[in-house]
Amino acid sequence: MDKTHTAEFSQTDSIDLVLRTAQDQFVVSPQEETRLWVKNAEGSFERLCNTRVSLRTASLKSGQLVVMETRSKDGTWPSQQTRAGSSATKEEEEFHGQPGICGLTNLGNTCFMNSALQCLSNVPQLTEYFLKNRYLDELNFCNPLGMKGEIAEAYADLVKQAWSGRHRSIVPNVFKTKVGHFASQFLGYQQHDSQELLSFLLDGLHEDLNRVKKKEYVEQCDAAGRPDQEVAVEAWQNHKRRNDSVIVDTFHGLFKSTLVCPDCGNVSVTFDPFCYLSVPLPVSHKRVMEVFFVSMDPRRKPEQHRLVVPKKGKISDLCMALAKHTGVSPERMMVADVFSHRFYKIFQLDESLSTILDRDDIFIYEVSGRSSITENTREDVVIPIYLRERTPARDYNSSYYGLMLFGHPLLVSVPRDRLSWDALYHILLYRLSRYVTRPSSDDEDDGDEKADVEGGKNIPKPGNVAGGSSQDPGPEQAGPSSGVASGSRAPTDSSPGPSHWPQRTRRKHLFTLQTVNSNGTSDRSNFNEDTQAQPYIAIDWDPEMKKRYYDEVEAEGYVKHDCVGYVLKKAPVRLQECIELFTTMETLEKENPWYCPNCKQHQLATKKLDLWTLPETLIIHLKRFSYTKFSREKLDTLVEFPIRDLDFSEFVIKPQDESAPELYKYDLIAVSNHYGGLRDGHYTTFACNKDSGQWHYFDDNSVSPVTENQIESKAAYVLFYQRQDVASRLKTKTQPGQSDPPAPPAYDPISESMDVN
């Protein structure tokens, strides 16, 4: 039952005195976690967060009601349960499990947050810091860079609940709301990166728990020839003058950064703090590309090939790789990106392969060795060919037809001396002979006449330019697939324009020919040879003729070359190799030059990072996500990392204490995993319980025990390592006689209040 007491205070007394008085009045142990609420004039309650301020500063008035709230046994606050409007079942109330073995409910694409929280929750010294309420005295409510203590309190609530041993899983909705409030990028329920959330959370906890209440200005000093030891000590002291928290104590180390000017040779040495290492993965210089090879032999179906090419290679490298499989010379190949039945782009041999994405449909066409799409001196010209079908337009005028692209386009070599419509028709008929039936003369005449009658219009007369007709309905409609973006201009050629081509003989055909633009949607009958534009030719089919003579199943058929079964095996790499890459000298990119104080200008200097001191808990972020101007990919390379005895002695350049090797050896305590690709994926966690030493797998609200040989996988993304001397120190503290004073028996959660006079 609620109880009320009255007490008198001075306006200069602190809120902390009110809290201690309330604890005395209601016989609540100081070890119990309590907090105060004040009832305002509107009848609602407001938290008194900062207990270090006076009653006057907190604007407390005489006669106001102050309520003291005690944290429940399960780590929750009674007021939170009241707001949630849900009561725990009897089974939930009676549940007792291993502290820390507690799942987190997925609120909707929040597995990234759950994974980061589970990793951080299993950092022993940080969790003990919150469980033993040491954070309460260090909450910084006035830090302009912080979150007014709200992130630290929200995280503390999660830790208290997870380590109470009274929950199978908890719902982190309050924490999610706080994160979204202070970091708008995490608002809503889109998928994010667990490492990005972890970075924000560590920074937020640090600022909320920063022991430095007023930060002084500190200027970064260059070594200027001084000994490294002296400069490093100065840099760390300067860092601690502005940043002093449990996060700094646990996670911060020190880099040595060396920059060398390529012009004057000026060397700049600085020491910078870090919170985690983002290490690169060794990247393969090879790339696997899938292409379709279209032979000039019409009897051969297109072949699918899987080719291994240099990642930074050119189109010519792709052709040379295909030549090894087909025996066709690279000079007789043309490469095109086909999208929505069109040529999205026809590549030149010197273009970079980086412009081709893995999802692009790449066709490589065999052309005659005398062919060229740009050189006018060659004997043959390559003509891009599209396939279109006449379809009744959605119009009241039944004589109006639309045209829809279908099938795969072609690149056809035509001798310059045979650039006539009739010759082109027969060349195309030959190229299509695998899936276009050549009718008998009687069948053709009958079919043509039938098509003329049923279509209500004549097939275009041979004498008309580019297959046009005096009864043609005008500009054709674009088909449903006409919305593709035109990524490149049409290939250029100075061959005679269609208006100068010899006229076709008067004869009925299976299809008609039409000059079009590179999209295949516009009539180019008014072709102007001064534009020097390469003509694209469309093969237009009447539906009835297409149905009778065009075999769609055969046209779409292809065969797989033996190389399609080839898989580029990625050899596993050791974590130490990634760290070596991290400490390798590199040249700065053009987008990120260094200003040389000696040259007085920006320079592409060489930069080298070295490890000077390492933190108690080392976070290693494996940079699996690669982003370039043209591509984005996830590296699924298996990184082999040790569970125990990760030795950093070869990487730390600070003079070492050989009598204490445990200062450079680390044991794994948690792993954040990412399964899937760039656009979608799922995050989980492996973590070692600090009390039992047992490893568990956390998959949102599901938790299951695992063995150590299950931890290493291609999904490992963020690794948490604990220094061995810290582990020994924590074990010593938990031995009998070394632990903190035992906490008094827990009180039932009650709400107690007192009047302030």
From TrEMBL:
This is Ubiquitin carboxyl-terminal hydrolase. Its EC number is 3.4.19.12. Residues 73-92, 438-506, 729-757 are annotated as: Disordered. It holds the Pfam family USP7_C2. GO terms for molecular function: cysteine-type deubiquitinase activity. Signal peptide: none annotated. Its main location: cytoplasm. Residues 77-88, 479-497 have a biased composition (Polar residues). It comes from Myotis myotis (Greater mouse-eared bat). Gene3D superfamilies: Cysteine proteinases (3.90.70.10), Phosphatidylinositol 3-kinase Catalytic Subunit, Chain A, domain 1 (3.10.20.90). Keywords: Cytoplasm, Hydrolase, Nucleus, Protease, Thiol protease, Ubl conjugation pathway. It is found in: Cytoplasm; Nucleus.
